[in-house]
Amino acid sequence: MDILKTIVNYILNLGGPVFVPLIMFIIATIAGLKLRKSVLAALTLGVAFSGMTLVVNYMMDSISPAAKAMSKIFHLSLNAIDAGWTGVAAITWSYKSAFLFFPLLLAINFVMLSFKWTKTLNVDMWNVWNKIFTYVVVLYFTHNAFYGFLVAGVQIVLELKSGDMWQRHIEDLTGMPGVTVPHLVTLFAVILQPLNKLLDFIPAMNRPFDSAALQKKIGVFGDNTAMGAIIGVLLGFGAGYSVSKSLNLAIQAATAMTLFPMISKLFMQALSPIADAMSDFMKKHFNGREVYIGLDWPILAGRNELWVTVVILVPVMLIFAMILPGNTVLPFAGIINLSFVVAALLLTGANLLRMIVLGIITTPIFLYSATYFAPIITNLAKSTGTVKVHAGQQLSWSTFEGPDFRLFFAKAFTGEWWAIGLSILWLLGFIWLYIDQSKAKLPSQRYTLAGMETATTANIPVEASSTSTDDIDLDDLDGMNFGSTSKKAAQANKSTSLEDLDGMDFSNSAKNNGNK
Amino acid sequence: MAKIIVACGSGVASSELVVKHIVDFFDDHSITGVEVEATDFKKLPDILANYDIYVWIARPNEEIQTIVEKNNIASVNGLPIFTGQNPEISYRDIIAALKNM
Asked: Would the ipTM clear 0.95, i.e. be above it?
């Protein structure tokens, strides 16, 4: 027994970046992956952990001193650096019991589908991480693993129910049938719902609003690199740095912002074999049933309103971070508030004005949550050994996902009465939201100009390809090489000489694949 | 070299998943010479013109549609790959677009 204990302890103490890839390798092998692929997947996961450690440390080293200097000048206490969802997800994946949440999600979804308690089949295995994170939060407060699993389980059930609830709205907003978004971020609608109801009384909020033109104007500021540079240079000036030092900080901040998603991609690459095996298993068992496929929120990202809102909220968040008393978080890598905007888009039926107003009102909630949860994220980072946080520094996430749900339910299990009360109130709020959204008019019919129907759904047909591709045999493709192929349009451009145009006849030309 | 781009919210999770599937598909069929990349929607309008095929998981808006048409880019519905329901539909479209180049 002792030997076994020693071995288990030895493996657990290898640290996240070694231990988790090891588990990954074992699972991938069990799932029947080829040796080459499972070795690569495991190694990629390890690389992703170290890569993220590099970037977070780099970010902390360049931003922290400036944040400190600025805090001194303006008498603020911005000591928590924002690692964004990519940073927090990375740290969370390195948590020891992370992989237990795949089977938990599968089991709950399986049972609920079997008893027809939901129509949503969640195949979004990437966002298993936000269940793990909930577990970590609950564990921190209650020191009880069972409560952690319980709250994570409640979250999975609520996500599936919200998947059922949003499906018809998502079909209307995107034109894509049979898909939905059972994601924790959409549950923030429970908090937004009463506020949104109040906005009904303001006439300007009941008109449609065209956001396409706005998006073109603000597009460049939404770019990660540009945004990093802007925040960096502002921070430099705020810290009283010289121009050259501020410009250097701008480049460093832009570097961190650009590298975050690059590293995060590695997680996805590494985890996809597991995710595939899990979702294949689920699909095999519910083949033929009418189910809504639950996907990650980016299927909604084609809506301009979403991007316009988050970019407008960036300066709002920075200003609030400066003026809110007691706030310790300097918004950085998580400044694009995806934790708010998806719920707002769905709840308001993509009404830009409402989304912006709701966003401004709720920004303090996110900053205070980030302040409140900073010790937990810092603790998680330290205990998994992924990021080194210096004394007096904290790590946080300025747009903390599901702050309401996580706080109330975690605290409720410590037996605090206010939290139990708020949790019950929250659940009632969810039921109200569920009933209300099941009756609510579809987004494209909700806001009308006096007597005029406006279509807000995109009007690009789904059946885009008019050429038949049925004759392509997918089993007979081996060895195709497109290495020397390039677009016809591009070739045509190069070979066109302006000296040899006389007598050209375009009457018979048509665009080659223009009707795709 | 043929170039395919997939886009999603942060260019991290969903698009990367679809990229991985497409790359695996090419691998399994020993198809070479195709580069598949992921990006985020905010960047997409700036870089889309450099690619030959756009595999989408969120319906292209007007701006994207205009770029696609202007630059003769084949636009392929990637949802079947993303949802895992009949991914062959998307793969067929991609191969057709590649052959068409």
From this structure: no
- Cβ-based contacts under 8 A for chains A and B: 196
Question: DSSP characters for A79-121?
Answer: -EEE-HHHHHHHHHHTSTTGGGHHHHHHHHHHHHHHTTS--EE
**pTM of the full structure:** 0.78
Most A-contacting residue of B42, B75, B89, B94 (CB-CB within 10 A), to test interface: B42
Chain B contact present for A140, CB below 8 A: no
pLDDT digits (tens, 9 = 90+) for A98-126: 888 988 998 999 999 989 999 998 888 88
Q: Give A145's contacts (C-beta < 8 A, 6+ positions apart).
A: A135, A139
The amino acid at residue A68 is: K
Instruction: Write out residues 394-453 of A within 8 Å (CB-CB) of B.
Output: none
Q: Is B75 helix (H, G, I), strand (E, B) or coil?
A: strand
- Interface check for A93 against chain B (CB to CB < 8 A): the answer is no
The reply to whether A510 touches chain B by the CB within 8 Å rule is: no
Residue extents of the structural domains in chain A: 67-224+239-245+259-446
Supply A332's token pair: 């950085």
What is the DSSP secondary-structure string of A343-388? HHHHHHTS-HHHHHHHHHHHHHHHHHHHHHHHHHHHHHHHHHTSS-
Domain residue spans of chain B: 2-79
- A479 vs A59: which has the higher pLDDT: A59
> Which stretch of A23-32, A37-46, B64-73 has the lowest confidence by average pLDDT?
A23-32
Query: Is the domain covering B2-79 a CATH 3.40.50.2300 domain?
Result: yes
Looking at beta carbons, which residues of chain A come within 8 Å of B60? 302, 458, 460
- Under an 8 A CB cutoff, do B29 and A179 touch? no
